[in-house]
Amino acid sequence: MAGFWLFLVAYFVYHAFHGDNSIHALRSLQQQELELQAIADKVRQKRTFLETQTRALNHDAVDPDMLEEQVRTKLGFVHSDEVIILLQ
């Protein structure tokens, strides 16, 4: 009977460290969660930036500075006496 209990304990200990639901798998999932949270934060920042730009280009009230920036960036309009430095 003692052999049965020893086998049972060994079985659960083995699967606690090597199974699909093991401690190693939990750590891997926690690391993946951190990486995905960082990606989600970057996407959230990008979305906020794009929403701000979209609001500035609203057809009811166009922001002149935003319009000028977009024309210069997209169409490449530059006055002959200007030096343009575009920052991302």
What's a concise summary of this model?
The chain is built from three helices and no strands. It is mainly α and 88 residues long. The mean pLDDT is 83.
Main β-sheet: number of strands, strand sense, barrel status? none
- Structural class by SSE content: mainly alpha
Anisotropy-based shape: rod-shaped
Number of DSSP E strands: 0
Low-confidence stretches: none
Count the helices. How many?
3
Average pLDDT number: 83
Strand % is: under 5%
- Cα end-to-end separation: 72 Å
Rg from alpha-carbon coordinates: 29 Å
Give the topology string: H per helix, E per strand. HHH
* Portion of residues within helices: over 70%
Description:
The chain contains three helices and no strands. It has 88 residues and is mostly helical. It has a domain at 2-62.
Spell out the blueprint of helices and strands.
Blueprint: H1 2-18, H2 23-56, H3 64-75
Which characteristics define this entry?
88 residues; mainly alpha; rod-shaped
